[in-house]
Amino acid sequence: MSRYTKCESCDTLIQPNQINIYDKTVKPGIQARLWECPSCNHKQLIMVSDKTARRMMQDNRKDREKISGINKQSALLRKNNKLTQTKAQTFLMQVEKIQRQIDKRTEQLDTRVRSLTNEYQEAL
Question: Which of 26, 53, 58, 90 has its CA 20 to 30 A from that of 76?
Fold first, then answer.
């Protein structure tokens, strides 16, 4: 099943493969992520970010990779019948700690990006 996006201007339903997402520098350090409707060429703002927001997104990506690594290690030990209860608990605690960091950072990131988007929306 395909997800469609609706243009805010002409109400055309657009398939994801028709959307070209690009970044535009608003001012040094501030970038807007946009896409253009293939039907009416209306520019649609997705988000505005600064260096701090982009760093936070990168930190979240790295933390998700850490969780993936822990899960792979756990699966390998389980497959080889070497996953002990203690080791499983340790893995679980590590994943939960990292996930809490991601959740906290994501909340801060959402607030920051919303604020930047509101601030620079008119400049676009």
Answer: 58
